[in-house]
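User: Let's play a game. I give you a shape written as tokens, and you guess the letters that built it. Ready? Here's round one.
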């Protein structure tokens, strides 16, 4: 059975390179016969995490995100690197989603027991590789098995232009990476 894969970028920006990378990943995965869900975080209103807010009730868009995320046992994140680490947007969303919510079906979880691949892109040479260490650590702490092969694509403006074609070498690298990850995702039946 081929599992449906959730794909999400850790950026809200309209012309985000990471969104672009996520969308190319979606295209390639669908070519390979996978069902996918592309999640655009800018379509949700997620406040900065505040425990007082949580005590008043989980915001409705957080619940929507949790419901969507919990329906997928496999996910891929394209995360921008901010100051050598995870983007604040992504960390905030992960923090909210990690909270218990009575609106979720019993036993449902966003991260625990899931399989994930993580990647990044940035206009810089290293492509956001340093941030991925932190993304991996956070997701692992939450119980996701993060597959090996973190990949960072440098020089984003040249290889992943928002209004142009993806560079062919990047396309090939991305396809191989997705093949590797989906192969592992198929072998693990979680
Ligand atoms: C606050 C801030 C910190 C950043 N830190 C880094 C960094 O550590 N490494 C890096 O490669 N790019 C860094 N950048 C540049 C981002 O990689 C660039 O803005 C990128 O386009 C963001 O991802 P997006 O296009 O998906 O929105 C930083 C940008 C901002 C606004």
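Assistant: Ready! My guess for every position:
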């Amino acid at each position: 059975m081929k599992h449906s894969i959730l794909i999400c970028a850790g950026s809200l920006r309209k012309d985000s390179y990471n969104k672009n990378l996520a969308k190319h990943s979606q295209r390639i995965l669908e070519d390979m016969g996978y069902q996918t869900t592309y999640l655009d975080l800018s379509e949700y209103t997620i406040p900065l995490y505040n425990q007082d807010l949580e005590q008043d009730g989980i915001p409705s868009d957080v619940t929507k995100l949790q419901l969507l995320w919990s329906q997928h046992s496999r996910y891929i994140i394209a995360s921008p690197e901010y100051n050598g680490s995870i983007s604040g947007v992504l960390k905030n969303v992960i923090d909210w989603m990690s909270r218990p919510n009575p609106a979720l079906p019993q036993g449902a979880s966003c991260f625990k027991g899931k399989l994930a691949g993580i990647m990044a892109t940035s206009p810089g040479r290293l492509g956001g590789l340093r941030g991925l260490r932190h993304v991996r650590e956070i997701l692992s702490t939450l119980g996701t098995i993060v597959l090996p092969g973190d990949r960072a694509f440098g020089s984003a403006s040249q290889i992943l232009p928002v209004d142009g074609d993806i560079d062919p070498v990047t396309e090939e690298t991305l396809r191989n990476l997705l093949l590797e990850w989906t192969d592992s995702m198929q072998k693990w039946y979680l």
